[in-house]
């Protein structure tokens, strides 16, 4: 009874995913979660125990829909919550997969797509939040779970995307990141949510490297450099970063004097440092001899 | 690998020996014509027979070796000195090659009497070595037999006393070692589980170093069982609670040996299933005992370095891994460890932007295994992206096996950076198009962004000209005009001093030696006082003497 109701809610969530507002979907989700609680399937239980596999996958799907819905609503906290709830399901899932084998393979494939989608989103979230350590830990875990098949990982539509983005960001090929975010390269609409954040991120990256790399820049080419729409936006952006505009060129406030000052300041303690070090050696030698 | 093979072949040889030898023992114990009894086989092996006779029956030898360790364990308990149990543990490596189920069964049956309270242990041990129907309480003729061959050692010792738990755990470890060598993992796993439970129930400080060993083999067995590690349902996941419980107890009891080895095992366990964040949390919430055994420290540092490398904390990783490679025992038996640690260290060094010393690759023991890494280093050093990609493609399997693959993939940006640096050093002005072609980058725009980022990150000193599309390098300053050499010098001196301090700390000073010195000093002082008194008393004489001299 409750199970059928759950399936209904789930299909409703899946089919009309994009049209539902966040409040609607979250209402549906909480209803689904209540049902799960009644069925005692809110948390993953070890396979082979009383819980049947269909319930297991139902619960997982509910969480997946929840994760996707919260991404659409740009609610990273809720998303993270769903992801950590899903983690347990994914860990156990491989056990179920090997245990039941045979007929469930087709189902497992469909499962994997959703799973990769959510995991990919998680990676992307970590990337945009600048949590590189977590990003790489997760990546390592993923590749081990696939038996070290990193190529496979990159070939996957959903997982490969954040991996490539990370590599390009690290390298500095921002134009590729830019291209990946436009032109329908994004694997699915949920990923598009991050594009805005990423655009902002790479723009400030480019700006900070430009400050150091160029003595001056013509406004016209800055537009394409920063992936901005019009020259007006360039001017606005330049103001926000405190750049000087003169004769159609952008001049960056030089950072030179500040560093020189810092250098001069460092000069004094430096000789002191040497004296301190030498005294330290002398003391140590004293104790040894 | 080869080490294991030889061990195995050695074992087989031993098996044959035992097959040949037992009959004479059962027939007659005069030990005179053992091999002649087998006549038909032994005819032409006169020399061999002589040899066997000379070096005593290997079975009896092994048994007496094992038993001699009991004495050590007894002393360890009596004197409360862990050094004796360590010595017993150290002898395992020499015994392990000669172990057979029969030997173990015999020792067990002779050690435990049927009436003693811990027959349960004995039964488990016998079950584990597949000799369940050997009767306990030592079949007497066997005892006399072995007694006659090594009369001094075990004559009167075992009958009066209870068997101390240390001895049965020690026998348990021997059984574990044997099962591991003969690849009976399932059985070994069961035995280890039993042993670990028993250790938990006993609360004896003298067991510490032994229990560390038990847990070590426990997790080794778990690793070898059916669904092998990377899969999440491998038995290693199921032993985590046991290990964590063991860790908790060990910490509470200040049991340093177990603490150290269990922390290391847990780390290894987490890393095998790539639970990096868990491993990180474990490190954060535990404190690795400071005065743990050197080998455990080395292992701990290696795993820690691995975790840090994955988390992109290269400086820390580098520090830990350098320490790990330095602490690794230099003997041949630990070669595998130092190779693995060196591999990881090399990758981390590359990731930090350093180029490892060429001498590392020239060491005789390392040369072959490090070859792929050598190629890698060469590609990175020159900044040749093409070479780099081909090296990765060619040796992907090796890198995957070493678990460095994902780290190596991160090197791509370093290769590019080195490439840019080389170019900025060699050209005072170079067009972005040329950079793009040389480094095989996708497009000029990419090249521009990459160079700009390199400038910001301080990789090169240069400026870009957007309108004319080139990179102009600044003059490179003299390194020796900066504080860099002084810093390097300071680092090295600090390392030397730290080394000195550590070696002083590592020295062992005999107990109460200072009292002896005090006594000596006391004596010396007394002698001095006497001397002084004499001088005082003989003051006059001396003056007289002086006077005499003057007189002359």
Automatic annotation (TrEMBL), chain A:
Keyword hit for Ribonucleoprotein: no
GO cellular component: chromatin; nuclear periphery; nucleus; proteasome regulatory particle, lid subcomplex; proteasome storage granule
Residues of the signal peptide: none
Cell membrane keyword on record: no
Residue ranges annotated for the CSN8/PSMD8/EIF3K domain, each copy included: 115-253
Biological process annotations from GO: proteasome-mediated ubiquitin-dependent protein catabolic process
Keywords per UniProt: Proteasome
InterPro entries: 26S_Psome_Rpn12, CSN8_PSD8_EIF3K
Family membership noted in the UniProt record: Belongs to the proteasome subunit S14 family.
Name this protein carries in UniProt: 26S proteasome non-ATPase regulatory subunit 8
Source organism (scientific name): Neurospora crassa (strain ATCC 24698 / 74-OR23-1A / CBS 708.71 / DSM 1257 / FGSC 987)
Lineage, uppermost ranks: Eukaryota, Fungi, Dikarya, Ascomycota, Pezizomycotina
TrEMBL record, chain B:
InterPro entries, per the entry: CSN3, PCI_dom, PSMD3_C, TPR_PSMD3_N, WH_DNA-bd_sf
PROSITE patterns to which the protein is assigned, alphabetical: PCI
Region (Disordered): 1-48, 137-160, 527-552
GO cellular component, one term: proteasome regulatory particle, lid subcomplex
SUPFAM superfamilies in UniProt: Winged helix' DNA-binding domain
Top-level taxon: Eukaryota
Span of domain PCI: 298-478
Pfam family, one: TPR_PSMD3_N
Residue spans of biased composition, Polar residues class: 137-151
Record family assignment: Belongs to the proteasome subunit S3 family.
Name used for this protein in its record: 26S proteasome non-ATPase regulatory subunit 3
């Amino acid at each position: 009874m409750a199970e059928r109701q759950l399936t209904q809610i789930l299909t409703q969530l899946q089919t009309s995913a994009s049209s539902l507002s966040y409040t609607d979907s979250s209402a549906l989700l909480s209803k689904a979660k209540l049902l799960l609680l009644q069925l005692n399937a809110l948390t993953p239980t070890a396979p082979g125990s009383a819980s049947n596999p269909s319930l297991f996958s139902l619960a997982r799907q509910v969480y997946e829909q929840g994760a996707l819905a919260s991404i659409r609503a740009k609610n990273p906290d809720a998303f993270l919550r769903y992801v950590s709830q899903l983690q347990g399901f994914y860990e156990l899932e491989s056990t179920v997969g090997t245990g039941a084998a045979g007929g469930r393979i087709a189902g497992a494939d469909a499962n994997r797509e959703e799973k990769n989608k959510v995991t990919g989103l998680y990676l992307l979230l970590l990337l945009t939040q600048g949590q590189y350590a977590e990003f790489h830990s997760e990546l390592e875990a993923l590749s081990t779970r696939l038996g070290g098949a990193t190529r496979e990982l990159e070939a996957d539509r959903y997982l490969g995307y954040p991996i490539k983005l990370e590599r390009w960001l690290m390298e500095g090929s921002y134009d590729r990141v830019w291209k990946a975010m436009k032109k329908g390269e994004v694997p699915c609409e949920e990923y598009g949510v991050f594009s805005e954040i990423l655009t902002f991120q790479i723009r400030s990256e480019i700006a900070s490297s430009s400050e150091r790399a160029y003595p001056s820049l013509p406004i016209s080419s800055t537009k394409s450099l920063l992936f901005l729409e019009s020259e007006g936006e360039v001017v606005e952006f330049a103001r926000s970063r405190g750049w000087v505009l003169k004769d159609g060129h952008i001049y960056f406030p030089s950072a030179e004097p500040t560093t020189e000052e810092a250098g001069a300041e460092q000069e004094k303690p430096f000789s002191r440092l040497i004296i301190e070090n030498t005294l330290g050696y002398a003391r140590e030698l004293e104790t040894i001899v | 690998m080869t080490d294991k093979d030889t061990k195995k072949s050695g074992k087989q040889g031993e098996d044959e020996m035992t097959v040949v030898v037992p009959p004479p023992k059962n027939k007659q114990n005069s030990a005179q014509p053992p091999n002649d009894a087998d006549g038909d086989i032994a005819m032409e092996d006169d020399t061999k027979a002589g040899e066997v006779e000379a070096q005593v029956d290997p079975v009896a030898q092994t048994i007496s070796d094992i038993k001699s360790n009991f004495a050590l364990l007894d002393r360890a308990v009596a004197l409360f000195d862990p050094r004796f149990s360590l010595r017993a543990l150290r002898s395992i490596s020499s015994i392990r090659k000669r172990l057979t189920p029969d030997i173990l069964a015999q020792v067990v049956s002779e050690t435990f009497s049927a009436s003693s309270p811990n027959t349960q242990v004995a039964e488990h041990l016998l079950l584990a070595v597949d000799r369940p129907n050997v009767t306990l309480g030592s079949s007497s003729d066997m005892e006399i037999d072995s007694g006659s061959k090594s009369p001094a050692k075990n004559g009167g010792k075992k009958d009066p006393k209870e068997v101390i738990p240390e001895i049965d755990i020690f026998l348990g470890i021997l059984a574990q070692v044997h099962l591991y060598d003969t690849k009976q993992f399932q059985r070994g796993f069961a035995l280890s589980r039993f042993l670990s439970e028993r250790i938990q129930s006993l609360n004896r400080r003298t067991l510490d170093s032994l229990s560390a060993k038990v847990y070590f083999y426990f997790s080794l067995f778990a690793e070898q069982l059916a669904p092998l590690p990377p899969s999440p349902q491998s038995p290693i996941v199921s032993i985590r609670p046991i290990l964590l419980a063991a860790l908790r107890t060990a910490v509470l009891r200040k049991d340093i040996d177990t603490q150290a080895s269990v922390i290391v095992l847990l780390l290894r366990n987490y890393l095998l299933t790539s639970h990096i964040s868990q491993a990180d949390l474990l490190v954060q919430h535990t404190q690795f005992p400071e005065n743990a055994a050197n080998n455990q420290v080395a292992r701990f540092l290696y795993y820690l370095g691995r975790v840090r490398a994955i988390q992109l904390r290269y400086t820390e990783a580098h520090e830990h891994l350098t320490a790990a490679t330095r602490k690794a025992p230099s003997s041949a038996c630990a070669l595998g460890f130092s190779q693995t640690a060196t591999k990881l260290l090399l990758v981390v060094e590359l990731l930090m932007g350093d180029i490892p010393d060429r001498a590392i690759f020239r060491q005789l023991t390392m040369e072959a295994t490090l070859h792929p890494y050598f190629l890698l280093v060469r590609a990175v050093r020159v900044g040749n992206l093409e070479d780099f990609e081909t090296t990765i493609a060619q040796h992907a399997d090796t890198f995957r096996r070493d678990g460095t693959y994902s780290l190596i993939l991160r090197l791509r940006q370093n290769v590019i950076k080195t490439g840019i640096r080389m170019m900025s050093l060699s050209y005072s002005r170079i067009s972005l198009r040329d950079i793009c072609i040389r480094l095989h980058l996708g497009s000029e725009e990419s090249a521009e962004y990459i160079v700009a980022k390199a400038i910001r990150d301080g990789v090169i000193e240069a400026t870009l000209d957007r309108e004319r599309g080139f990179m102009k390098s600044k003059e490179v300053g003299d390194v020796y005009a900066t504080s860099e050499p002084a810093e390097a010098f300071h680092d090295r001196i600090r390392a030397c001093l730290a080394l000195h301090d550590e070696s002083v700390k590592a020295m062992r000073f005999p107990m109460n030696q200072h009292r002896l010195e005090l006594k000596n000093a006391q004596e010396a002082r007394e002698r001095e006082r006497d001397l002084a008194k004499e001088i005082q008393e003989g003051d006059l004489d001396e003056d007289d003497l002086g006077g005499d001299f003057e007189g002359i």
